[in-house]
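User: Quick sanity check before I run a bigger batch. Here is a single chain. Can you write out its predicted 3D structure?
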Amino acid sequence: MVEYWHYNPQHEERSKEFFSGKETPEMQMDFEIAEKDFIHSGKASSANKALLKRLGVDSDTLRRVAIASYEAEINITAHALGGKIFCYIHPDLVHIIFSDYGPGLKDIEQALIPGFSTASQLVREMGFGAGLGLPNIKKNSDVLHIESAENQPTKLEILVHFKK
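Assistant: Done. Predicted structure follows.
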């Protein structure tokens, strides 16, 4: 199993504090994502964004959460054997975990290179697979954490801090 961590320096101290503790979320939503179900893919990300909007989260943060969540959700739909999304809302941030059922990432660093893709022909014909998913997730989250290995499930989690 290989781990990858990326922290936005602006939020690194608070993020490390968050991961070292066992903070209880104020709200939680869970979703099941089916393999290659492009008709329903994006619904979990939309539901997360809608809830955060109702809670008064600012538009820039909503945009960042929506982009990162959608990209991760599409990655599960396109590349994995299905998976789950767990969204935990805290007073100052949102923590989202994307857990798939495999087949894992052969090389996380390579998968983070813009334009690199392992998408099938079917996925490309659907208009996905440009190799921008993980780079967009990294760009729009304050923390990106990935645990994966080839032929194993992948766990990707993000933190996005709310503006004060």
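The longest strand covers residues 93-100.

User: Great, the batch can go ahead then.
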